[in-house]
Design goal:
The protein is α/β, with parallel strands linked by helices. It has 21 helices and 20 strands. Strands 6-7-8-3-9-10 form a six-stranded mixed beta sheet, with helices on both faces. The chain has a six-stranded mixed beta sheet with strand order 16-17-18-13-19-20, sandwiched between helices. Strands 2-1-4-5 form a four-stranded antiparallel beta sheet, covered by helices on one side. Helix 6 packs parallel to helix 7, helix 14 packs parallel to helix 16 and helix 16 packs parallel to helix 17. The longest helix has 18 residues.
């Protein structure tokens, strides 16, 4: 166990690190001679688009490489010990005790069969850092520090019994339990809504400062990294682009690539004049079992427009989408499409009704059959809805690929052979194959880096213009709403709080909940989170 030394001493020193990955029967360079110097108590922000090597480098800082990867050169000195030269069993003495990891998806990182407190304390107990009783007491104190509700008893719950934001904070408590010297945060707030993100960021920052822990914070969100990092390193294709203290980097990025990352946030759609509604939701109630989720909601979607639905997790956004698609029949109220009532149950709808309303899902990974090729994925709705077969179907698949800015080289690829952005484009093509009038986009950019996000949003806007599509765009990302929407619906606790044009909703005065949402959107200012917390606490 380390004896914590004073802040400012070098903890992690990486020199000339090179890593290769194995694919297509050969080894490829994925990290090309990167250097890192991290001192105790410092937080380094690691940014770049998908495929830059951020997560690979973050894991390598612990001396770990994923299956199919290997370290080919360089040093990884942790507290003076070169991890790159240690055997696996020797490195394991460091993992889970002196260095810990907070993953992007907390839900996938917990064992659903064990209570939270047992998982929180496992590393601390196993490493001999604390006895079970002491570890449990400490875990409850960490829950309190991380602003978790009911800190003395929340650990008795199972992972499925808490929200995504709460689970992310429990994972941070798990990482802090053995009092590590180094924590790797790998996109820990990507899937969280803005209000939850503020809570999680504040909690993580406070606990890193309190325990003098060094951290590497991996993200593609520049405004988030500005709140967490003392300095920022930019990666691209495994190469180091530049590094600078956070304030200097935000004010004056030197490299063109870094400047391009900064400029992505400026995208904004030209607002169109409203037309007659293509879809209306009237006095809609919906429930899961006995738990009522939607309460008399009313939403109108003009033809050819983009209506963004925003709100925290649990506000009812995705539930409304499920009702529109017929996956969840409403208790009462109506869904009216093209001036005709839609049957509540999907099974009762005609093939034509199903064809005209399509959905693009949040997780492209799980929305596609991993055993089907791109040709099969896009071809299936062509055959099912439009009766296309043979050469005609093949030609249309190629047309759709061209429409989403891909080509015939992708026809025989499986989802596992595609990048995150390419997968989402294939999901868009599959929805378009049905030739719909109305498309529900459910958090379609949430897991993508900002450059890929911009590409997807530009694609959606172009397709809307070319094909006269209408979008219901569900998101918790306010910057995306500002970029793509014509009208905005704000939801909270299953009710519509506010709706109107983008200009109306984003112009003050706001209802209290809308004000909370808008004030929780991170800004490219390192003092933003500090100032926000001071303002909210009345300091």
């Amino acid at each position: 166990m380390s004896s914590k030394t004073k802040k400012g001493e070098i903890l992690l020193e990486i020199n000339g690190l090179k890593i290769q990955g194995f694919s297509d029967e050969k080894w490829h360079d994925i990290v090309n001679g990167v250097d890192i110097c991290l001192r105790r108590g410092e937080v380094m922000g690691l940014i770049g688009e998908s495929g830059a090597g951020k997560s690979t480098l973050g894991l390598a800082a612990m001396g770990y490489t994923q299956p199919g990867c290997r370290i080919t050169d360089g040093q990884i000195k942790f507290d003076g010990v070169d991890l790159a030269r240690l055997k696996e069993n020797e490195k394991r003495k460091y993992w889970g005790s002196r260095m810990t990891y907070v993953a992007q998806s907390a839900a996938a990182s917990f064992n659903p069969a064990h209570r939270l407190i047992k998982q929180t304390t496992a590393s601390a107990i196993r490493s001999g850092f604390k006895e079970a009783g002491e570890a449990y007491k400490d875990a409850k104190e960490l829950y309190q520090t991380l602003n978790l509700p009911d800190p003395n008893y929340i650990g008795d719950r199972y992972p499925h019994q808490v929200s995504g934001g709460q689970l992310q904070r429990v994972m941070t408590a798990m990482a802090m339990s053995p009092r590590p010297d180094l924590i790797i945060f790998d996109e820990p707030t990507t899937a969280l809504d803005v209000t939850t993100q503020v809570e999680v960021l504040s909690s993580m920052r406070a606990i890193v400062e309190e325990f003098n822990t060094a951290a590497i914070y991996i993200t593609h969100d520049l405004a988030v990294v500005a709140q967490m990092a003392d300095f920022i390193k930019v990666l691209r294709y495994g190469d180091e682009v530049e590094e600078a203290p956070t304030r200097d980097m935000l004010k004056n990025p030197k490299e063109e690539y870094t400047k391009s990352l900064w400029s992505v946030r400026a995208l904004e759609k030209e607002i169109i004049a409203p037309q007659a509604p293509i879809l209306e939701i009237r006095d809609l109630d919906a429930a899961y079992g006995t738990a009522k989720v939607l309460h008399k909601i009313n939403i109108s979607v003009p033809r050819g427009s983009t209506v963004a639905v925003v709100g925290e997790s649990g506000s009812g956004k995705s539930t409304a989408a499920r009702v529109i698609t017929g996956l969840l029949p409403q208790i009462s109220g109506k869904v009216i499409f093209e001036e005709a009532d839609l049957p509540p149950k999907l099974a009762d709808r005609t093939k034509e009704q199903k064809r005209r309303i399509q959905m693009i899902y949040q997780m492209a990974d799980t929305a596609m059959n991993p055993r089907q090729t791109v040709r099969e994925i896009i071809g299936r709705p062509l055959e099912f809805y439009l009766g296309m077969t043979g050469a005609k179907k093949e030609s249309r698949v190629l047309d759709l690929l061209e429409m989403i800015e891909l080509d015939g080289r992708f026809l025989d690829r499986l989802p596992s052979e595609l990048s995150g952005g390419q997968k989402q484009r294939i999901c868009i093509a599959r929805a378009l194959a049905a030739e719909p009038d109305f498309v529900i986009c459910d958090e379609v950019t949430s897991a993508l880096d900002q450059i890929v996000q911009e590409g997807i949003l530009k694609l959606l806007m172009r397709l809307q213009k070319d094909l006269n599509l209408t979008y219901l765009f569900i998101t918790h990302d306010i910057s995306t709403v500002k970029a793509i929407s014509d009208q905005v619906v704000v939801m909270n606790l299953g009710k519509v709080v506010e709706q109107g044009t983008k200009v109306e909703v984003f112009s003050p005065p706001h209802p209290p909940y809308t004000d909370l949402l808008l004030s929780s959107v991170p800004e490219m200012d390192p003092d933003w989170l500090t100032n926000l917390n001071s303002e909210r606490s009345g300091v």
